[in-house]
Amino acid sequence: MKSADVVIVGTGPTGSAYARVIRTEWPEARILMVEAGPQILPKTGGHLDNVADLDERGSLEVLAQGGDRTPRMPINKEEWEARRAGGFDGSLLRRSGLFIANDGDPQDENLFAGFSAANVGGMGTKWSTGTPVPSEIELVPFISASEMQAALTTSAKLLGVNTDPNAGDPAAIALRERLGAVFNAGRTPDRFVQPMPLAATPGPDGLHYHGTDVVLGDLVDEPAERFSIMKETACRRVIHDGRTVTGVELASTGSSDTFVVNAGTVVVACDALHSPQLLHASGIRPEALGRNLNDHYIVSQISEMDTDVPMKAMSWIPATRDFPYSVTIAPASLHSMPRSGDIVGQPIGMGFFVSSDISPDNRVTFDDTRTDWLGLPAISIKWRQSEGDKARLEEAKDHALAISNIIGRPAAGFATFVQPVGSSLHFQGTIRMGEADDGTSVCDKTSKVWGFDNLYVAGNGVIPTATATNPTLFSVALASIGARAIAGARRTAA
User: Catalytic: 426?
Assistant: First the structure.
């Protein structure tokens, strides 16, 4: 396409949601998606966890991890023993796609690990598929409850959410009953201990995980003049006059030759690090751009549970106003570790999600003198842990041990430990929405960039609140609001 009604930069869950909702609300729209990485699976946007062969899956993950496609070394014995003792495990900083984006010492509490996914489907090819509903304290305060509920319902349909994907698991049901006896009092039923909702479909061979293939649906079968994905193409700049966007400047990845695609509307849906990077490179630099970088912590605990029937299902303790933590409990696989420990019962892993304080000083910065593999200003991250963060983490460790004893007991030789900041890959706040154009936000509640008529942003980065819950359902819901705004405005204008 040399021109499109809508250009979406990024093919992850939120970019794909924009495409799907715009098509539904504005059937005649010509939509172009731009992706810096390759298509790694035959099915557009399919999920990597559906690839059964682990060696093949590992090779595909390397192709999906952005500019650095160096294979990651597995955990070694020393790192595993450090993790068991509750100390620093350097292998957590060698996960596919992670990169260190500041100068902190590897064991520094202020180290922040960044992430780059570059392939058709973005993080939709790699995400956990966890789709828990955010709590009332995490929701955007200036979006009405009815509008947010409708958007969350739309999001669940787009992602194909299953609220009980491993229904009938007797061990999981028994565990939820024990946990519920402790946590359900004073909660509304929607916040009771429950199965973890997943974007997945049960089948005879286990769960089939949903990527952006499910979100896009039959869009990928449309004629190229109506819908297309331009892969292995970097967006170097959004072209604009300071108020109106007219197109995007693109280049084949690794090439210095650029070309322009004219656009009626542009949606920047890279991720919470690379969306502000592209806006910065385009000369769109509101005061809040890249600031308020936020990510929840993960406190990890390995437990062992005595059960006659092995547990398969995941369980979830939702966050509430009185319990501002989100807890995921699932079977733990220790087969790839150098030493599994002296575990008698079934190993159970717990991810105890802890929110972090929002500060405008925690931010992404860009170096105009150095470029990355996309030809854009190199990213650095400034991050400092707050005293409030430290206090919540200590409280969370106590909670994790208490829950471990409800599950069964803490596994022998496995200490409670805190994963490095950024490990959740749920970065937020860097293109945050706000109620007013007062310098503290980048976009309005429809995700339209302040001061622009036809420029929108998408992804976890628009979330303005402190959260402790997997954010994909939330960010796709916000994307659906923005997509409807685009379709409504453009239909009216036409």
Answer: yes
